[in-house]
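Morning. Coffee machine broken again, so started the prediction first thing and wrote up yesterday's gels while waiting. Chain of 529 residues, entered below exactly as on the submission form.
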Amino acid sequence: MLVAHFATLVACGAAGDTEPTASKDAAADTSPATDTGEGDTAAAGGAGHDDTGPVEPDSGDEDSAPVEEIPDPFAPQPDDDEGLTNVAEDLKDVLEHGDMEGACEAYEADPADRRKKLLCGKSMYFDEGFGTIGIPAPLFDFVNESFPDHTGTAFSEYGLFPNPYSDEGRPIGFAPGAELPDAPGVETVALTCAACHFGRLPDGRYAVGAANHDYEYGTHMLSLVLVPQVANPFFDESAHSAEAMARVQPIIDDLKADWMLQLTLLWDLLPLLSAMDSMAALDATAEGYYASWAPGTMDFTIAPLPVDDGVHTVSKIIPLWGIPTASEEAAAGMPHAMLAWSGGATSLEQFLTGFVVIGGGPLDEWPEERLEPLAEYIRSLRAPENASLPGTAESRALGESVFYDEGCIECHGAPRGGGDRVYTYAEIGTDDAMMYWGDPDLDGELCCGLGFDEASEATHGIKSPRIAGAWTMGRFLHNGSVETLDALFCLEGSRPTGLDAPFGDDGHLYGCELPENERQALVDWLQGI
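Came back before lunch.
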């Protein structure tokens, strides 16, 4: 009830750069495609194709016009970060040693300086709540400070990272939001891009743009929604989802056993009394949904967010690096940027505007030009290279050959291994619950405020995600139902395993019929791109 005003929680994932992790395969082509997730442009890790791009089809006619050469989707991108540190072992290095504070003011005073522009964009990435109404700060801080045995320092047990520059001891990815409308003076804590799109790589380095597949978003939100309700003397555990209660029961038990903590909570609730009636609540069904999400996954249009499409869909957090430029889109034959899992966001600016909309922020205060530093900063992000390549050079070379020769390139031939069109779920065979995202009636009209501009589109489909940087990912398929590349290519047993929608691990079986050595080689190569 109280904490239901966390409109900005949507920062993480799904509609946000929600790109379908279900790989796309042309209906007339049964060749394998790799459904790994968004990635960046690291160089291909082995031989097997000409560095200038995929092999061109032979027309069989010496007199026919030459086929236009397609750019290599995995060609290295030039560094474009103006010396900012986006990947490092030292967390403070990535946080620019506190220099992000005041960065946008410095850029406004000197708009011709591109480094200042990118630093402003980086500060927005980590510290901008976009005027959304988040979680009441007294409640956020109470749960954060009171149960370290269960939540960890700054919710680190839920996969978040303590912010060394936060005076309140909050995690990275949380910033001041708007005040509660009916409780003047009560600040809220809103999610930022970095809550879900900043992570720690398998080699221990921190990376901006990485998908945080360790973030237990559902459990984190339940701790902020359910735990404060214990202060209500009429709190009835049986009226709530049993699965949700189980997620936070240790915290509730500690609170019930400590009367001093209860008094502290009551004191923190006093400023919120005037807003009690206007605060939305999670019903038991919605609580159960939150409890059902695996780390790194979520539904980003669900109560109590201001945009609720009435459909339970699950998507994994995806990386935000390697987004194609306009010239790359044109060269690859893409209709537009094809961001979001549905491929319906036509540009990064539109995608970021959608973030403001879904979080309930004041859209008129965030025109595209104000979002421009953030957009340019995100475009500068690159997938980190894997310094510990798996397998042998021979295996990776074989894997690259498999990728091209067996047809994966047909679906992952756009920049960084993304796709160039939207596919139907019937083509890919993956769990189709997300087909109803934003348009539960399938009438072509986006609901609940999602159609905020003329370019907004309900595609009812899914696109191939960018796959460069696959070695950093801990979840695959658009709903995150597959946890490893080995499992994706049936090296850990057969799929599907019988999971119900929206958690099904059906589809994208491309490659599972190949010899085991070729599948292993493909996995080795993918972990080097």
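Confidence is low (pLDDT under 50) at residues 1-67. Going to sketch it on the whiteboard this afternoon.
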